[in-house]
Design goal:
The longest helix has 87 residues. It is elongated and about 160 Å long. The chain is 52% helix and 15% strand. Among the domains are: 177 residues, no CATH class; 132 residues, no CATH class. The strands form three sheets. Strands 1, 3, 4, 7, 8 and 9 form a six-stranded mixed sheet that branches. Helix 1 packs across helix 9, helix 4 crosses helix 6 and helix 5 packs antiparallel against helix 6. It is built from nine helices and eleven strands.
């Protein structure tokens, strides 16, 4: 199995600096301008990267400090619910069941726990190249059998969630199918109602047309008959009026109003008689028209009732699907977390490799300072020919992802940097020449 020791300090392109310079930058960064250290050691935190079938690598913490916990749902027995609905033959009971079931309710939740598995985002940390650093590798607790079981457990959890999501999809299809059948019956019933009413309305319209035609013939005969009789006296009245107008013209009488009133009264009597005849022939038409309106009203009322039932079926289906979608979306969030456990690692092509993350541990006074992998900011010439040199606290910055190891480190280590005095001092000299305010002797960094 290939083992890769990541670099402790890289340039801005993530390329490793020479070993001596990595050590010097690390000491300068930790101690700053004036701090003295009583202990300094380079340790290596071993991680195991194992390629997953879906791509990417599972990252295992071989020290056992890290683990991953993911909350999962305990779903209700949807198969049992559907079976109960399918066994119910009465349509109203089926709908009552569907309305009463809490489709988005879950039985509870549980925690899936994976020892040694890391789910942190390492960001740039796993882009670092390798270096031959004098690392004190932390004790490994992870065994091959653990790796096999953990990968099997993760895949089992993934398969379980996928199976549950598939089940929810099938339940949604089944619910839609059941409601579609009930809805189809309602649509067929609506078609029958519409057809029955349309036949009655058509028959009533035909009856109305016949009655209207018959009454038109009758009213024509009666109006003509009565008009010829009633209007027969009108010429005599007109003669009487004409004579009265002549008497008035001659001054024999003062007004013709009395004779004009005779005409007016006579015409009113004619009009009343004719209206009686017309109204008599409207009675049957009004009755049929009222029956036709009643049929149309009853048709619309019955259709509205069916349409309301169909609307409620649509709303029930939408409500159930929406609630099932809520459960499914929660499941997808859990699945996404599980499927994101494998990380992309650009420095690996192997199926399996150990990646060692370097950390510098220093004791300053009563404090333990832990330095994660760094990015060197490059040579910075001091002002005025080096008289004013740059503060070594600014010499580098953390690589994203390294902080997770700093926050979790709680082990006791032994000093191992004094053995590399010559290398470190070579690096310190180079940093000094690049304008950094560093001490050029390793002894100057230690408490004597």
């Amino acid at each position: 199995m290939k083992s890769i020791n990541l670099s402790l300090v890289v340039d801005e392109n993530f390329n490793p600096l020479p070993t001596y310079k990595q050590l010097a930058i690390s000491i300068a960064k930790v101690a700053g301008k004036n701090n003295k250290i009583s202990l300094a050691s380079l340790v290596g935190w071993p991680l195991l990267a194992v390629k997953s079938e879906a791509g990417g690598y599972y990252i295992f913490d071989e020290t056992g400090k890290f683990s991953t916990s993911i909350n999962s749902l305990i779903l209700q027995d949807y198969n049992k619910i559907i079976s109960m609905i399918e066994k119910t033959s009465d349509e109203s009971q089926v709908l009552e069941l569907m309305n009463s079931i809490r489709w988005d309710e879950v039985r509870g939740s549980s925690t899936i726990h994976f020892d040694f598995v890391m789910d942190q985002e390492f960001k740039n940390l796993l882009k670092l190249g390798s270096s031959q650093l004098p690392l004190q590798i932390l004790d490994r607790k992870l065994k091959d059998i653990d790796v096999q079981f953990l990968i099997s457990d993760i895949q089992g959890a993934v398969n379980k969630i996928i199976s549950e999501i598939d089940l929810i999809e099938k339940i949604k299809e089944k619910i839609s199918e059941i409601i579609a059948i009930i809805k189809g019956k309602r649509v067929e019933k609506r078609r029958q109602i519409e057809s029955e009413y349309d036949a009655k309305i058509m028959a009533k319209n035909e009856e109305l047309k016949k009655v209207v035609n018959s009454e038109k013939t009758k009213v024509e005969e009666e109006i003509k008959q009565y008009s010829s009789q009633l209007y027969s006296k009108l010429p005599d009245i007109e003669v009487l009026i004409a004579k009265a107008e002549l008497d008035k013209e001659a001054g024999f009488i003062d007004s013709t109003s009395s004779v004009n009133s005779i005409k007016e009264k006579y015409l009113n009597e004619i009009s009343e008689k004719l209206n009686e005849i017309k109204e008599k022939h409207k009675i049957e038409i009004r009755r049929l028209r009222s029956e036709l309106n009643e049929l149309n009203s009853m048709k619309q009322k019955d259709l509205n009732k069916i349409n309301e039932e169909i609307k409620k079926l649509d709303e029930l289906q939408q409500s159930i699907i929406s609630k099932l979608n809520n459960v499914e979306n929660s499941e997808k969030v859990i699945l996404d977390k599980l499927q994101k456990l494998p990380k992309f690692i650009s420095i690996l092509v192997e199926d399996r490799a150990e990646i060692v993350v370097p950390l510098l541990i220093a004791q300053i006074d009563s404090r333990k300072v832990i330095l994660p992998p760094q990015i060197y900011k490059g040579g910075k010439k001091g002002f005025f020919g080096g008289i004013f040199r740059k503060d070594p606290s600014e010499i580098s910055e953390d690589v994203e992802g390294g902080e997770i190891f700093v926050n979790s480190f709680d082990l006791t280590v032994q000093d191992n940097l004094r053995n590399y005095k010559d290398l470190i001092e070579k690096g310190l000299q180079e940093l000094y020449e690049e304008g950094w305010s560093v001490r050029r002797s390793l002894d100057e960094y230690y408490i004597r």
